[in-house]
Design brief:
It contains five helices and two strands; from the N terminus they run βαααααβ. The protein is mainly alpha-helical. The N and C termini lie close together (about 10 Å).
């Protein structure tokens, strides 16, 4: 199983740059890139809340579970 981060989709919908989004959320652009590229190992609820507030979306709009096991 894998969690897919759909931050790039939400940023594109709103025509927000990584830099502008990072500033609004209170993260560095490098940390936003880590999230956007799916390399993050964890996300604090406070960060997720800030991301949802800025993007005016639900957590499920940013995170998606995908079953990647072939035997299921």
């Amino acid at each position: 199983m894998a969690i897919v981060v759909r931050l790039d989709v939400e940023l594109a919908k709103r025509k927000l740059s990584v830099g502008e989004f990072a500033e609004r959320v209170g993260l560095t652009p490098a940390n936003v890139a880590v999230l956007k590229n799916g390399r993050a190992k964890a996300v604090r609820f406070s960060t997720l809340e800030a991301m949802c507030r800025v993007l005016e979306c639900q957590p499920g709009d940013l995170l998606e579970w995908v079953n990647d096991r072939a035997d299921d």
